[in-house]
Design a protein that fits this description.
Length: 418
Amino acid sequence: MTKKATSSAKDADLKYLRSVNTVRKHCSYLLSLGRMNQLRHFSVFEEQLAEVAEYVVEEMHLNYPNDEIPYHGRIRHLNTGGLNRVGQLQQELASTGAHEWAQALFQLVVISVFLDAGAGPTWKYQEPDGRVFQRSEGLAVASFHMFKNGFFSSIAAKPFQVDAAALKQLNEEKLAAGLQVHAENQVVGLSGRVALLNKLGEFLDTFSPSCKSQSEKSLGAVYDVLWQELTQNSQNIEAVEILDFVLSQMGGIWPNGTIWNGHNIGDVGEHSQIKEGHQVQKLVPFHKLSQWLTYSLLEVFEEAGARVQNLDILTGLPEYRNGGLFLDFGVLKVKDQNALQKSWKPQSEFVVEWRALTLALLDELADIIRTRLKKDGENLPLARILQGGTWSAGRKIAKKLRRDAGSPIKLDSDGTIF
């Protein structure tokens, strides 16, 4: 094979691994093995899905009795506790114009997503008014106040931006202060978060070469490029186009992403039972944070006047709330009970198998829920089922079964995936 042909084949494989269709294909393959009881770590009991569906539907009706379920996205967490913080920020920027507001919202959502990995069961964040939040909501509220106070900007006169200079200079001490971390209030994966934000700063530095100063190399410039690319033909945006941009342009930011043929391909695990071609066998792509970011940006673009369509091509999110839901209801069971006493790294085959089954089962669960509610993928996409939904249902059952309301599987989180 010639060098050019080899390069072309590698490019094709890279595109394959970044495809959301491949995410579903490889995860569904592992679920098919689970149905035949051929997996190493988990057994699958799909007959329990009906009980899970009933529980999730009850949760959806409880959370959204008017049946108007918003998208699962970071804006939900930013407005936690019944306070419309995003709306308050919009009022502050009312005099700047629609474009500036869209830029600011994009930057806030992106930086908040990048800070959103498991905080641990004990960390807390206290707002200026005294209210206290934990976990994902606590990180969202913390990111909101940091953004509002110019924490991610290198220019005091431009507080509402996230630029390369500020991110590249960020260290553990500064981020700890922003997150109110101290000896009695530790957050999981602080160093991992710093590394992630440093890498985001490096990305901004190279993404906007025409900008003369690093302060101009901001996420606002990324928004402008992405908006222009997505709306050059019409105001209708395909959801997968947002994900494709995130994966192709920002995929290399993840510090602990899988390296394949010299490329950082991000949130991709390995499983010995995957058999998909000689180049990509054993690889299981998830792209969880990239998809979480994509879900979170849906409202940003709709706020800016676009119509995002075909949302259901995106997959469910393989994180510990959704995965815990299936374990806690007995849809999934570990084959070795000792596994529940260990602490697992996200890259371990045990966790990769759990995440793959979770992602594939979310599709199965969504079909059951839609049938019960007489809806389809267009009017009840995964973006709404997750919000309605599986994420809060996973949290509720965890709180009922475990004192710390944590994951049924112990995770050695580095602050970048979970």
